[in-house]
Amino acid sequence: MAIIMISRGTFSGGKALAEYVANRLGYPCLSREETVREAVKKYGISESELTEAMNEPPPFWQQVHGKRLSYIKVFSAVLMEHIREENLVYHGHVAHLMLGPVSHVLRVRVIADMEFRIKGAMTRKNLSREGAIAFIQKIDNQRDKWTRFLYGMEWKDASLYDVLFNLEHLGIDVAGETIVHMAGMDAFKPTAQSQKTLDDLILGSRVWSALAINGQATATKITVSADAGTVTISGSASSTKAIDAIAALAKEVEGVREVKTDLGVGPDWYW
User: Could you tell me how far CA 32 lies from the centroid of its own chain?
Assistant: First the structure.
């Protein structure tokens, strides 16, 4: 069966839809907020800093890899471990982009008219109408900036999704049953190639998270990729000592058979 990723706008009804689908399929249901809390517990990082990294776009002068991005990688690693178990319904923001070319992912976008969202924000956040509008616009703007920064894409682009639902016009049950049906289609069943692609992404995220939380390797600007147990790390680090530390740390990660590095000493620093 498919991995189901539901990208939801603020107060669009995505949480309720995800829970409906998970209940119908008997799948675990995981939210962005739960993933953040698990990352905090597993890696011993600050919840406020991780939440800020997930919510706030970087300042204009911080357009390189940084502490914020290291936190994103830690979040990704936790999410990937859940995905490794398959049979998952996840609801949150742009997580489907983390899975890149994995074909057995059903990518769902949930939207609602502004008035529907305003009423939801007023009720759940106890806001005035003006406050609800400002809150929704702020969150949408942050997500727009983050998606462009991390992926160079517009998260509202319909071409990034397999299906889109407006829950003001469709009931949860209609949208949910449609997703349940689609999840059983051959197009969303794992193949040998799609499973390998997913396994490579998971291993790469493990290595990235190990480097992100280790003080010896923080002053780096790197990319990490994996291919059947072989991990390639390229980019720049603050010193030759950091380069050695990066290779050593990567070799200790479960599932890594070989580490290849193409690293130089450069001026790009995390913080």
Answer: 8
Confidence at residue 267, expressed as pLDDT on a 0 to 100 scale: 62
* pLDDT score, position 61: 47
DSSP state of 85: T
Can you read off the two tokens belonging to residue 123?
């009720």
Dump pLDDT digits (tens) for 56-87.
766 554 544 566 777 788 888 899 889 887 78
In this predicted model, what pLDDT tens digit does every residue of 183-219 receive, in sequence order?
999 999 999 999 999 999 999 999 988 888 876 555 5
**Burial annotation 32-52 (CB, 10 A radius, 16+ → b, else e):** beebbebbbeebebeeeebee
**N residues, the chain:** 271
Q: Helix, strand, or coil here: 237?
A: strand
Q: Choose among 256, 210, 260: nearest CA to 235.
A: 260
Global pTM reads 0.85
Cα dihedral 166, 198, 38, 160, rounded to 10, equals: -20
Residue 231 forms beta bridges with which residues? 226, 259
Sheet of 163-166: strands edge to edge? 29-31, 89-92, 3-8, 105-111, 163-166
CATH for the 3-188 domain, from 3.40.50.300, 2.60.40.1120, 1.10.1040.10, 3.30.450.150: 3.40.50.300
CA distances from 54 to 76, 92, 93, 133 (A): 11, 11, 9, 21
**Average pLDDT taken over every residue of the chain:** 86
Rounded Cα distance, 75 and 103, in Å: 22
All structural domains of the chain with their residue ranges: 3-188, 214-265
